[in-house]
Design a protein that fits this description.
Blueprint (H helix, E strand, L loop, with lengths): L6 H10 L3 E5 L3 H14 L3 E6 H7 L1 H15 L3 E8 L2 H9 L4 E4 L6 H17 L3 E6 L4 E2 L4 E2 L9 H11 L3 E4 L20 H10 L5 E3 L7 H8 L13 H9 L2 E6 L1 H17 L6 H24 L6
Parallel strand pairs: 1-2, 1-10, 2-3, 3-4, 4-5, 5-8, 8-9, 9-10
Antiparallel strand pairs: 6-7
Helix pairs in contact: 2-4, 2-12, 3-4, 5-6, 7-8, 9-11, 11-12
The protein binds glyceraldehyde-3-phosphate (G3H), 1,3-dihydroxyacetonephosphate and zinc ion (ZN).
1,3-dihydroxyacetonephosphate binds next to strand 3 and strand 10.
Length: 311
């Protein structure tokens, strides 16, 4: 089984009422934890790379590690650029073997977003690569993107048809109340997603794959593990998993998860050092981190995404 783009995966996911997990990768242990989980569950998979991850690990290292994972697992894997912000970055990833890219023009005006997205779609489609666009703005912080809660805005359903028709994108990321990072809701605040907006978009774009960013549930067990072992992440709160499952049964075909992986890795390493303060072999402390990423991803594939057995 070779690298695949997202076309077939999304078609089957839409029809089957489940979603594909898109997990962010930065190093070998994360890639192994995720792909071993997908192999155990026979699940289709998207591994995604942000520009920050690409700067950290270098394109060629991540690409070769993913190719190794495909050889090892025999799974269909789509390699996707997460939050591409320029044509040049998308082109570089396409030329370097990625099978899918996101062009995130959500911070531009509607017209400029269309222009940039269309330019990427033309190049990508000529190379057999699928494209994700974005309308609406999520709050939250990653390396390259920092959007304050005041600047965040829900996707306007009235714009989606025109955007998809004029750009030719293969999937669309929307803002319905999810946000990037580990602090998605304030303590005491009732977590809510705007399913009314999702339903409206689904009606206007029948059969079209929708993407949810900022969809970590910020699993309490890992927040607890961090806080009990020297960390300080009070009030880290994510999206309730039953809401994500509901979205996956609707038009949402791709659910992005990064923060949950970071929390599992950090919690596992902190716990290991708290229990073994004299150890210094990276293989010892990365082993439980990788094992916990595997079990976390298996949990997501089965209980949140519903894509187990669908590879
Ligand atoms: O939403 C983006 C991902 O969480 C990637 O974050 O830019 O820090 O790699 P990053
Ligand atoms: P989280 O921060 O909720 O994991 O979202 C990740 C994401 O959207 C990557 O694009
Ligand atoms: Zn994102």
């Amino acid at each position: 089984m070779a690298l695949v783009n997202s076309k077939e995966m999304f078609k089957k996911a839409y029809e089957g009422g489940y979603a594909i997990g898109a997990f962010n990768v930065n190093n070998m242990e994360i890639i192994q934890g995720i792909t071993e989980a997908a192999m155990a569950e026979n699940a289709p998979l998207i591994l995604q790379v942000s520009s920050g991850a690409r700067n950290y690990a270098k394109h060629v290292y991540l690409m070769k590690l993913i190719e190794a994972a495909i050889e090892d697992t025999g799974l269909p894997i789509c390699v996707h650029l997460d939050h591409g912000d320029t044509f040049e970055l998308c082109k570089s990833c396409i030329d370097g073997g990625f099978t899918s890219v996101m062009i995130d023009g959500s911070h531009h005006s509607f017209e400029d977003n269309i222009k940039l997205t269309k330019q990427v779609v033309e190049y990508a489609h000529a190379h057999g690569v699928t494209v994700e666009g974005e309308l609406g703005r999520l709050a939250g912080i990653e390396d390259a993107v920092n959007v304050s809660a005041e600047d965040a805005s829900y996707t306007d359903p009235g714009q989606v048809q025109e955007f998809v028709e004029r750009t030719g994108v293969d999937s669309l990321a929307i803002a319905i109340g999810t946000s990037h990072g580990a602090y998605k809701f304030k303590p005491g605040q009732k977590p809510q997603l705007r399913f009314d907006i999702l339903e409206d978009i689904q009606k206007r774009l029948p059969g079209f794959p929708i993407v949810l960013h900022g969809a970590s549930s910020v699993m309490p067990e890992y927040v607890k593990m961090i806080n009990e072992n020297g960390g300080k992440m009070p009030d880290a709160i994510g999206i309730p998993e039953e809401m994500l499952r509901k979205a996956a049964s609707m038009a949402v075909c791709k659910i992005n998860i990064d923060s949950d992986l970071r929390l599992a890795m950090t919690g596992s390493i902190r716990k290991y050092f708290a229990e073994h303060p004299d150890h210094f072999d990276p293989r010892q402390y990365l082993k439980p981190a990788r094992a916990n990423i595997k079990s976390l991803v298996q949990h997501k594939l089965v209980n949140v995404l519903g894509c187990n057995g669908k590879a």
